[in-house]
Amino acid sequence: MVSMISQLAQGFVLTAEVFALTLIFAMPLGMIIAFGRMSKNVILRTFVKAYISIMRGTPLMLQILVVYFGPFYVFDIKMGTGYRFPAVIIAFVINYAAYFAEIYRAGIESIPLGQYEAAEVLGYSKSQTFFKIILPQVIKRVLPPVTNETITLVKDTSLAFTISLAEMFTVAKQIGAAQTSIMPLMAAGVFYYVFNLLVATVMEFIEKKLSYYR
Amino acid sequence: MKLLEINHLRKNFGELAVLKDISLSVEEGEVVSIIGPSGSGKSTLLRCATMLETMDGGDLVYMGETAAAGDPCIYAPKKQLKKIKKCFGLVFQSFHLFPHYTVMKNIIDAPVSVEKVSKKEAQERALKLLKQLGLEDKADSYPHQLSGGQQQRVSIARALALQPKILFFDEPTSALDPELTIEVLKVIKELAKEHMTMIIVTHEMQFAKEVSDRIIFMEQGVIQEQGTPEEIFASENSRVREFIGKMNT
């Protein structure tokens, strides 16, 4: 029992890494993609739209497999097992950035035009307007959907089992199969749940912090 | 001294000619009201003058500095426009205060981060303005905690903090109930007494009559008539009489 927990905990470290790295890269990347999606350049906009459509329209599990096996099947490049972790991160980041981009776009487009016009008449530059006036309001508005995505991400990390990355879910499945017991999976479930409880609490705290204005 | 000069302004939205050959000049210290039915182009004129809309043709000159000229219209380089934009301020119908900033920050942020005024000086100026507008106890409030009338007064303070030469108002009381309208109009009247140059688009006829040096009546994209309040209110023009008559009943 104790050894099972400690093995799961080791797997959990990897789970947490996938979670954190995905957020760190996908959140800013999503902003860049959102700008591409709203670009006046038709080619860029169409390209980004197609990218988002594919990312949202195909299973993340499939995307992980494509990123992991793609280099070998398409380009005949052998990446070795060391590529597992980077492959998972790449797949998660490009997938989640697409979702974040759409959330950001909705947030940015929900800010009334009057805010931009007021800023323009007051002499703010374009970048001052975005960073001082628009972005803070966007952050407040997108927080609830971003919380949703973040919670989904915690659970989605388990998809890394597809390419046998030794994160918590993969470990739980292996122990469960070896011991013919459901307990490791139940214990993993508790890990996920507690982690998400923590995520939700942190996000709720940030939301409260931002509730000083409407 | 002429602060603003507009010559032969023309503006289309697609096929629709919204402004047709508008010419208008405003002297320092003058208070000009623009009245007229909805869709007459009053707000578009204001938006062209404040460069929120681009003109299709005509000249726009602030204090001798040309912002745009010709037909089709060619605008001055960005740098010069930026300088010219400091001449004027604009008060919107629905305030457009920044909701995440306190009243104080709403007023001082543009002077500090755009004009590079020291924070201390900007705050002193802001406090003076707040006192003048009867809002001295609201400096630390957020816009959503204020009434519409208070929000509009804050937005007037925000515009005044940049010390514009001309202040434009785009239907400043249309989003307010009658009681709040009075408190905002009072503030504008005070500014008129101090000879602030103002151009006001409004539906408040009595107010326009009291506060203006000149009233402009617009309809269908042209200036139908302009003159002193006495002249306009005694106009022979049947459309002007009809409009004013309707608004007064």
**Poorly predicted parts of chain A:** none
CATH topology (fold) name of chain A? MetI-like fold
The low-confidence parts of chain B are none
Mean pLDDT over all positions of chain A:
92
Task: Tell me what the structure shows.
Chain A has a single domain, classed as Orthogonal Bundle (MetI-like fold). Chain A contains eight helices and no strands. Chain A has helices spanning 2-37, 42-57, 60-75, 84-109, 113-121, 126-156, 168-179, 183-209. Chain B has 249 residues and is α/β, with parallel strands linked by helices. Chain B has a domain at 97-163. Chain B is 37% helix and 27% strand. Chain B has nine helices and eleven strands. In chain B, the strands form two sheets. In chain B, strands 7-8-9-3-10-11 form a six-stranded mixed β-sheet, sandwiched between helices. In chain B, strands 2-1-4-5-6 form a five-stranded antiparallel β-sheet. Chain B is globular. The A-B interface holds A 112, 114-115, 117-118, 120-125, 128, 132-133, 136-137, 140, 212-214 and B 50, 52, 82, 85-86, 88-90, 92, 94, 96-100, 109-110, 113-115, 142-144, 158-159, 162.
Topology:
The complex is a heterodimer of chains A (214) and B (249).
Chain A: H1 2-37, H2 42-57, H3 60-75, H4 84-109, H5 113-121, H6 126-156, H7 168-179, H8 183-209
Helix pairs in contact in A: 1-2, 1-4, 1-7, 1-8, 2-4, 3-4, 4-6, 5-6, 6-8, 7-8
Chain B: E1 2-13, E2 16-27, E3 31-35, H1 42-49, E4 57-62, E5 65-69, E6 74-75, H2 78-85, E7 88-91, H3 103-113, H4 119-132, H5 148-160, E8 166-170, H6 178-193, E9 197-201, H7 205-211, E10 214-219, E11 222-227, H8 229-233, H9 238-248
Parallel strand pairs in B: 3-9, 3-10, 7-8, 8-9
Antiparallel strand pairs in B: 1-2, 1-4, 4-5, 5-6, 10-11
Helix pairs in contact in B: 3-4, 3-5, 5-6
